[in-house]
Structure prediction request, 74 residues.
Amino acid sequence: MVKPDISSEIMVEDLIKFYPAANGFLNSRGLHCIICGEPVWGSLRELALDKKFSEEQISILIADLKALVDSESV
Prediction:
């Protein structure tokens, strides 16, 4: 199965499934992806907006997450 690109529209469930390190990364920024052992519903953007992130903050978050994933694949 091909990994989906990390974007604001990636579903949280897919993000955690294909990029497990994203869970800790997002938790450290106040975005909890797993509640009661299950991924939250919705997209990464929806999760961030629910926590009052601005569009600019979401863009930075995605760039930082991509950098983390890229550094782990080396």
